[in-house]
Amino acid sequence: MTPPVYAVNTFTTESTIAARENGFSFVCSMCVRLHEGHKMAKGNWDRTRCTGSHCVGPLGGGCYPEYAGPLSEILMRFCFMCGDENPRHGISPNTFSRNTQIIGCCDEHLGLVMDGSFDVRPTGTRRKQKVRIAGHEIEL
């Protein structure tokens, strides 16, 4: 089976690393909408904002409902904050919202969402899958 190819010409490995170094979460750093916002801010990370109109991560009570990027179908496989590839928890908001999905959270960042507004469940074993991101095939 041929792995899916993602159109990620809007960002590079270097820009993803720069986003993380400037305080954006792992998931945001891998989203086309953040990198579109970075271009609109003319390369200024302090002025960079996501171009999604209602997209918010767990720190804002959501689960990235407008995420657009190579992690779309596999957000539970990584910690939303640091990108840990073996998160022990799957989290989702307790309140209904459009495009609600379960995303991953590691032990280190679990305290960020333990205010009662999230349903937290242990993750099970996961099946690895090969994907192509920016011309590189990786196993997730």
What's the layout of helices and strands?
Elements: E1 5-6, H1 13-21, H2 26-29, H3 32-40, E2 89-93, E3 103-105, E4 118-122, E5 130-133, E6 136-139
Question: What would you note in describing this structure?
Answer:
By secondary structure, the chain is of the alpha+beta class. The protein has one domain. Helices cover 16% and strands 16% of the residues. It is built from three helices and six strands; from the N terminus they run βαααβββββ. The strands form two sheets. A three-stranded mixed β-sheet has the order 1-5-6, with no helix packed on it. Strands 3-2-4 form a three-stranded antiparallel β-sheet, with no helix packed on it. A hairpin with a 2-residue loop joins β5 (130-133) and β6 (136-139). The longest helix has 9 residues, at 13-21. Mean pLDDT is 80; it is low at 1-8.
